[in-house]
């Protein structure tokens, strides 16, 4: 029974969880492990990048993440799109492991896992998005590129596929959140940009959401086939987070100055964007269900109410994400 792979769709949403103090940068690894997990492999975007984009040369809006006040609660900027730590940091700490080092920092220690996430990364690759008229502004390190890095890493640190299976048996694989940027870039394509987002027109918002809906099947297919590949290589615990309530994201909310009350839900978040996120999640959940096979168990984390967040913040993600992590249910 020890080999029963677990495929977990975790919707990282929390309304009631309280923040915790940030983890120490190098937690002791000798203290405890959880469920035999000694390594974490993480794929994703700015929600979990701990310094890859900074090493690729962050440009544009994301350039700001490489200097203070980003990282201000840690004391220095790390390339994390946050004022402090991210969910993945708290997850590592809660599993008794050191913080995950970014893959592109070749000087560091990857004994307890690797972070392949790159801020701005998409699920679909640049070519596939270009074919849909969508330009990728920040990085070409889409999910297939990150999976490629993972394979390179695994083959360079093991001697056989069997050894890879052994390694993965003791690992947690975090596959996402990824795909959110595919949609963000689709939105940006249709929303006029004036030093940021501008979205005071509800009709236009609904039109661009409709356009992004077209992307959902391909985005989900890409995520699920990556999961399949990882399971085939021997992964036994794969967490596939859903998208978060986009309509409550501070950067969207502060950009949207909709005067029309129908644009907002009871929590003051943007209705169309939250519906869109739910649609992506429903589609993803169904595809994960189809991925189920003998020996693979699909579980789902509890989904607490979506959070209410302040309408503006200078930080890309704020600590809202950190609070979510505390609710991540790995059982
Ligand atoms: C991009 O993704 C598409 C669809 O998955 C794939 O067919 C194509 O080979 C990929 N292109 C590159 C350059 O990786
Ligand atoms: C992505 O790849 C294209 C084609 O190789 C290149 O022109 C572009 O500069 C790359 N973009 C980024 C952000 O690296
Ligand atoms: C809102 O956007 C739609 C679609 O782009 C456009 O036709 C309409 O004129 C806009 N309305 C206002 C008040 O800007
Ligand atoms: C939002 O719109 C109102 C009315 O159109 C305007 O007075 C206000 O300055 C706008 N706020 C922002 C932050 O753009």
From TrEMBL:
Signal peptide: 1-19
Gene3D superfamilies found in the cross-reference section: SGNH hydrolase
InterPro entries documented for this protein: GDSL, SGNH_hydro_sf
Pfam families in the cross-refs: Lipase_GDSL
Coiled-coil region list: none
Keywords, comma-separated and alphabetical: Glycoprotein, Signal
GO MF annotations, alphabetized: hydrolase activity, acting on ester bonds
Domain of life: Eukaryota
Family the entry assigns: Belongs to the 'GDSL' lipolytic enzyme family.
Name of this chain's protein: GDSL esterase/lipase
């Amino acid at each position: 029974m020890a080999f029963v792979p677990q495929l977990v769709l975790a919707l990282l949403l929390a309304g009631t969880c309280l923040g915790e103090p940030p983890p120490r940068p190098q937690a002791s690894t000798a203290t405890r492990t959880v469920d035999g997990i000694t390594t974490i492999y993480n794929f994703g975007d700015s929600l979990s990048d701990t310094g890859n984009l900074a090493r690729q040369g962050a440009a544009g809006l994301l350039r700001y993440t490489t200097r203070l006040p980003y990282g201000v609660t840690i004391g220095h900027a790390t390339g994390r799109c946050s004022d402090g730590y991210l969910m993945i940091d708290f997850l590592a700490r809660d599993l008794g492991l050191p913080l995950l080092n970014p893959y592109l920092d070749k000087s560091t220690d990857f004994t307890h896992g690797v972070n392949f996430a790159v801020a701005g990364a998409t699920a679909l690759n640049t070519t596939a998005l270009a074919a849909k008229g969508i330009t990728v502004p920040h990085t070409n390190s889409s999910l297939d590129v990150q999976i490629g890095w993972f394979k390179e890493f695994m083959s360079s640190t093991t001697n056989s596929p069997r050894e890879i299976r052994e390694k993965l048996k003791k690992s947690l694989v975090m596959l996402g959140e990824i795909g959110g940027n595919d949609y963000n870039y689709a939105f940006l394509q249709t929303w006029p940009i004036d030093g940021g987002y501008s979205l005071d027109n509800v009709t236009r918002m609904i039109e661009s959401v409709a356009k992004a809906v077209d992307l959902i099947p391909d985005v989900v297919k890409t995520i699920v086939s990556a999961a399949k590949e990882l399971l085939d290589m021997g992964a036994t615990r794969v967490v596939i987070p859903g998208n978060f309530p986009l309509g409550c994201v501070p950067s969207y909310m502060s950009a949207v100055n909709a005067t029309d009350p129908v644009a907002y839900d009871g929590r003051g978040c943007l209705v169309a964007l939250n519906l869109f996120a739910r649609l992506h999640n429903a589609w993803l959940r169904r595809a994960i269900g189809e991925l189920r096979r003998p020996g693979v168990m699909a579980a789902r984390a509890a989904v607490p109410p979506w959070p209410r967040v302040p309408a503006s913040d200078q930080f890309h993600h704020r600590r809202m994400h950190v609070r979510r992590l505390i609710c991540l249910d790995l059982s």
